[in-house]
Amino acid sequence: MSDPFRLDGQLAVITGGGTGLGFGMAQAMVGAGSRVVLIGRREAVLREACETLGTAAHSVSHDVRDLSSLPALTANIEERFGPVDILANNAGSYLKKPAADVADSELLDLFHTHFFSAYVLSREFGRRMVSRKRGSIVMTVSMTALFGIPQVSVYGAAKSALLGLTRALSVELSPHGVRVNAIAPGWFDTALNRQAFESDPARLQKILARTPLGRVGEPLDVGYAAVYLSSAAAKFVSGVCLPVDGGASIGF
């Protein structure tokens, strides 16, 4: 019997795949036998990521907030690299400030980055997956979609919308062979988080205190979860939100 956790012969598109959790997904998927196409805004970062990952990795420099360009981007990727089996909507940005201080432009920017781009890419790649009767879409949501966290109201609202989209698309696309799931990461050792923890050490201690495993995670932990959800091992799994958080969402 072949290994149901392998992704041999498949092609994955990962937004925000050059660094952090997206790069962890890319590492895990390449390790499981998949080719990957990384999408991000910083060409140098993408190039370095692909050099690290090897010949199974490719990149496309693109700003996914430009919604009108995404149908053409989708077509271009499939023309260049072949049919896409896995879409990981992982692109994101962060905003920490009291809700009363959030500007309209900041509200729109976060929703464009997290929700609108994921919606359009899921629509465009989803159409193609439906026509082929196979595919997996994985959304990166957040602990902020599971419980309230102060000073990240817009980020939490965008991630909550993405979780709602996961459930709705699962019901709509699963009858056509396309599974849709979400991963809710806890707190991880990434460059962005390290910067945040350095500026707010009390917040890190609060996080560790409510995390039963007593530490932050590694990007590959999310990567392995994405591999599972995209593999044949999860062929009867759709519409779930999988916390990868060291137990933080159930910790006390």
Note the gap between the termini: 42 Å
Quick one: overall form? globular
Bin the helical content. Answer: 40-55%
Give the overall average pLDDT. 95
β content, as a range? 15-25%
Count of helices?
A: 8
| Count of distinct structural domains | 1
Number of strands: 7
Supply Rg: 17 Å
Question: How would you sum up the major sheet?
Answer: 7 strands, parallel
Strand line-up across the major sheet:
3-2-1-4-5-6-7
Order of helices and strands: EHEHEHEHEHEHHHE
CATH fold category name: Rossmann fold
The CATH superfamily label reads: NAD(P)-binding Rossmann-like Domain
What's the CATH class label? Alpha Beta
- Pairing-aware structural class of the strands and helices? alpha/beta
User: So, CATH architecture?
Assistant: 3-Layer(aba) Sandwich
> Which residues form runs of ≥5 with pLDDT under 50?
none
What does the model show?
With 252 residues, the chain is an alpha/beta fold. It has a single domain (11-244), classed as 3-Layer(aba) Sandwich (Rossmann fold), CATH 3.40.50.720. 46% of the residues lie in helices and 15% in strands. It contains eight helices and seven strands. It has helices spanning 20-31, 43-53, 70-81, 104-132, 153-173, 191-199, 201-209, 219-230, and strands spanning 11-15, 35-40, 57-61, 86-89, 135-140, 178-185, 241-244. The protein has a seven-stranded parallel β-sheet, with helices on both faces. The longest helix is centred in the middle third of the chain and has 29 residues, at 104-132. It starts with 10 loop residues before the first strand and ends in an 8-residue tail after the last strand. The model has no long low-confidence stretch (mean pLDDT 95).
